[in-house]
Write a structure and sequence with these properties.
Elements (H helix, E strand, L loop, with lengths): L1 E2 L3 E4 L6 E8 L13 E8 L9 E7 L1 H18 L2
Antiparallel strand pairs: 1-3, 2-3, 3-4, 4-5
Length: 82
């Protein structure tokens, strides 16, 4: 598997970390498009005690979905930062 260097940001207020990278598996015989690149997004919520233990989430997006989600995030962020 090929992976880009991770791009990571951490929220200073909550400690939540988001890590994004582009990945690509080699083509598998009999599986067309198995070598299509994808975006791997990981969200890491820190430990905030027994009621809120740490959580790691991982989501995978194809290019079109990653672009659509990115546009939504930018739009919403612009709204709340006004």
């Amino acid at each position: 598997m090929h992976r880009s260097r991770p791009a990571a940001v951490t929220d200073d207020r909550t400690g939540t970390e988001v890590v994004v990278r582009v990945c690509q598996y080699p083509l598998l015989d009999g599986y067309p498009n198995s070598d299509a690149p994808f975006v791997d997004l990981q969200v890491r919520y820190p430990d905030h005690g027994p009621e809120h233990p740490p959580v790691d989430l991982s989501m995978v997006f194809g290019g079109d979905l990653a672009l659509a989600v990115g546009r939504i995030l930018v739009s919403f962020a612009q709204e709340i930062l006004r």
